[in-house]
Write a structure and sequence with these properties.
Layout (H helix, E strand, L loop, with lengths): L12 H30 L3 H27 L19 H28 L3 H31 L5 H8 L9
Helix pairs in contact: 1-2, 1-3, 3-4, 4-5
Length: 175
């Protein structure tokens, strides 16, 4: 039987729903990055593979952070079902383009969560979400810098090898 304390929540149904949608988006991002890591691994891009394994883990951590928050404030978090993750990619560049697109979509989704929080005056959740928005600056920055490598180095000859080798060097230091 549920404890009486757990039956009360400060979350509106709308906020609980949108947070569960965000949980699913974070899980989907984790699964996508795992597929990208596998593709990179299979194609000999070992540095990019490690990058995407790390990204996958970070997205899972983000999912769990929101998941635990929902439960901690008395809501009900749902374990998402994830389907439709691509397993094959055209090129290393297309993998990074897909990663940037994923991060931009995630930033937009997080902004929608915060927008709803302000509309229903849930400042606690809006404050909680600020960490995720700040994190998105770093995520988008790293993917943009990676894509710049394709422009600067080029993909011809040993270009993709050189790009792959440079991926671990990309850091966000503008905090």
């Amino acid at each position: 039987m549920r404890d009486i304390v757990r039956q009360k929540t400060s979350l509106t149904e709308e906020i609980e729903n949108i947070l569960n949608e965000q949980i699913k988006l974070e899980a989907k991002a984790s699964a996508l990055y795992l597929a990208m890591a596998s593709w990179c691994d299979q194609h000999g891009f070992l540095y990019s593979s490690e990058f995407f394994y790390k990204q996958s883990g970070e997205e899972r951590e983000h999912m769990l952070k929101i998941f635990k928050y929902v439960n901690d404030v008395g809501g009900k978090a749902f374990s998402p079902e994830i389907t439709g993750i691509p397993q094959d990619f055209e090129s290393l560049k297309s993998v990074f383009i897909g990663g940037l697109e994923q991060e931009i979509a995630n930033t937009q989704a997080l902004n929608r969560v915060v927008d709803v929080c302000y509309k229903v005056k849930d400042y606690t959740t809006a404050n909680f979400m600020q960490w995720f928005l700040k994190e998105q600056i770093e995520e988008e920055f790293i993917f943009r810098r990676a894509l710049e490598l394709f422009e600067v180095i080029g993909e011809e000859g040993v270009g993709t090898y050189m790009i792959d080798k440079k991926i671990p060097d990309i850091k966000y230091t503008h905090e």
